[in-house]
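Let's inspect a concrete specimen:
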Amino acid sequence: MNKNRLEAFSDGVLAIIITIMILEIKVPEGHNFEDLKILFPKFISYILSFIYVGIYWNNHHYLIHGLTKVNGKILWSNLHLLFWLSLIPVSTGWMGEHYFAKQTMTLYGVILLLSAIAYIILQKNIILNEGKDSLLGKVLGRDLKGKASIALYFLGIFFSFFNELISGVIYFIVALIWLIPDKRVERIFK
């Protein structure tokens, strides 16, 4: 299979995920700006999830860009990642609908954690396929961001049982970490 087909399919799925998330935000009954207040939690959860899906889309692009050949492990690893990402709209809607209740924050964190693990599996399979001495293998190296994210997700899930605000702040911090582009990757794939 051609890597362009893999990337196009993944881009389509990610676009559908974002579309589903925005369709969950219904137009309020009233016509005044104050009628929009009820949408605030849904909008905040949508923004955070949009950022996460955008981060995955961006990093997936660079990951696939460094790929020279596709095999079955990569295809299944990619589908595994897309499966977990496709659950983000459910947890996003649930969080927004129930004002970031503890259980909703737990589910959101679990889905983020499993998405991150799936991404690492895809990344490892690509490096195995391309070789540790490939450009991608050299650039990704020890993947400190990935490991830190996993630890923070576990922390966020733990705190979600006690304090949903702390949990939310942790999920936001992980998003901020990934919003800072990795200059090593950008330099190589310009």
The CA atoms of residues 155 and 167 lie 8 Å apart. Residues 3-188 form one domain. The radius of gyration is 18 Å. The chain has a mean pLDDT of 93.
